[in-house]
From TrEMBL:
Family matches, as Gene3D superfamilies: Vaccinia Virus protein VP39
Pfam families assigned: Methyltransf_32 (PF13679)
Domain of life where this protein originates: Bacteria
GO molecular function, one term: methyltransferase activity
The Methyltransferase domain, residue ranges: 121-228
Record CDD domains: AdoMet_MTases
Keywords associated with the record: Methyltransferase, Transferase
Protein name from the UniProt record: Methyltransferase
A single GO BP: methylation
Species: Halomonas litopenaei
Organism ancestry: Bacteria, Pseudomonadati, Pseudomonadota, Gammaproteobacteria, Oceanospirillales
Length: 402
């Protein structure tokens, strides 16, 4: 691919586009019985175009929003596609099958793809941030033939991780440590690099903060940007702060959550179940609006996987109980179920606008992190370390202090 755009330039262009179209991508169609957008050109044309799509085209655009999009008639689809293009990382490393013991298949593939992002010399000291059972640490210890300190706050994960490392004769030490606690900085003192695969929101921001202070190299694949204390996102870098202010871009937690909402790794079965759950929620939404006599969305708690009732009626009765609503006799359950299914067709089509802005949002957040380190004198590179089908959180940020 061509030389990647400088981070600051890319951030500036993305800030402008995200701010210009904020009114269109930020309202969630799921929570609106009617059009989610203000009456503004070209909202009505976009809605009409999306509602006319057949199921196959809708599904294709959910998967590949930038390819042959009918929205290009109104929205800067090609420019967004160009701005989210990030170079591919080095190919995955090869490792013996036996090394994969105790690691889930998909996680193992992610780790093989992430490993080349971790450059480390002989005898250098690695720290893994939010390590779980230290699966990545074990792979890296084998690859680099060195010692690794893996930080994790759950004692049970530390214990089983330590047992696995010892059984395999590896120099990996699982340390029970809350990475948000001040005491964490002692682990970075003599570290040559900190690695973090899928460290959530504030947990990876804390890592960036300490890496800046202590001038430590990092290899990070961030995720779950919405897991953060602040209700409104405060850009980390001076450049993102300035750009956001200049263009009037403000991101709340829902916007941050949108950046990571993707189902590319779900199986067909899981997808069908999720579709049904969404249709039932929309069916209940129609019902609750009638029962309350209030034409407003009512958030219903999520249900743990496998806890969804078998029948639509039972789901509605559960949701009504949760929200303190009384369900009268004589409800035509089938009619509400069908209504939910029809609403979902509409919502899925309107959501296609948000699919277009999801990756730009994520890239914007990663650029903010990259620039924050660059402003502290680090050399930073971004790459896509694996295909989206393996994990949509496939951006890696590698930073080296000057
Ligand atoms: C999303 S998992 C990632 C685990 C592993 N890196 C992977 O890719 O499978 C996040 C891990 O961070 C740990 N964690 C969450 N909060 C933490 C904290 N404050 N301090 C240390 N670890 C934490 C969790 O227990 C969990 O094991």
């Amino acid at each position: 691919m061509n030389t990647p755009l400088p981070h600051a330039e890319r951030l500036e262009a993305l800030t402008r586009l995200l701010a210009d179209w904020h009114w269109l991508w930020s309202p969630a169609p799921f929570t609106h019985a009617g059009a989610p957008w203000p009456e503004r050109t070209p909202a009505a044309d976009i809605a009409a175009c999306l509602q006319a799509l057949d199921d196959a085209r809708c599904q294709r655009l959910q998967q590949r929003p930038f390819d042959a999009s009918p929205l290009a008639a109104w929205l800067p689809v090609d420019e967004l596609a160009r701005l989210v293009r990030v170079p591919d990382g080095a190919p995955p490393i090869q490792a013996p099958e036996a090394w994969a013991a105790h690691v889930g298949g998909r996680k193992w593939q992610q780790m093989l793809a992430f490993a080349p992002q971790v450059a480390v010399g002989q005898g250098q000291r690695l720290v893994e941030w939010c390590a779980g059972k230290g699966h990545l640490s074990r792979l890296l210890a084998r690859r680099h033939d060195g010692s690794i300190c893996a930080l994790e706050w759950q004692p049970a994960l530390c214990e089983s991780g330590q047992a696995l490392a010892e059984r395999q004769g590896l120099e990996v030490t699982l340390v029970e440590q809350d990475v948000m606690a001040p005491s964490v900085s002692r682990h970075l003192g003599d570290a040559d690099r900190v690695v973090a695969l899928h460290a959530c929101g504030d947990l990876h921001v804390r890592l960036l903060e300490l890496a800046r202070e202590q001038k430590v190299a990092i290899s990070l694949a961030p995720c779950c940007y919405q897991r953060t204390r602040d209700k409104i996102y405060r850009p980390l870098s001076r450049q993102a702060q300035q750009q956001a202010e200049r263009h009037g871009l403000s991101l709340d937690r829902e916007a941050l959550a949108l950046s990571v909402q993707e189902t590319v790794t779900a199986s067909q079965g899981e997808r069908r179940k999720r579709e049904q759950a969404n249709a039932w929620r929309l069916g209940f939404d129609a019902l609750q609006r009638r029962l309350r006599g209030v034409d407003d969305y009512l958030a219903v708690p999520s249900l743990a996987y496998g806890r969804m009732p078998e029948r639509f009626e039972d789901f509605c009765r559960w949701a009504a109980r949760e929200k303190g609503l009384t369900v009268p006799d004589g409800i035509d359950w089938d009619a509400y179920r069908r209504r939910g299914e029809a609403c979902l067709q509409r919502v899925n089509r309107l959501e296609l606008v948000r699919h277009l802005f999801r990756r730009p949002l994520e890239v914007w957040l990663v650029l903010d992190r990259a620039l924050w380190l660059e402003e502290a004198g680090f050399e930073v590179s971004l790459s896509q370390f694996c295909p989206r089908a393996l994990t949509p959180r496939n951006l890696a940020l590698v930073a080296q202090p000057a």
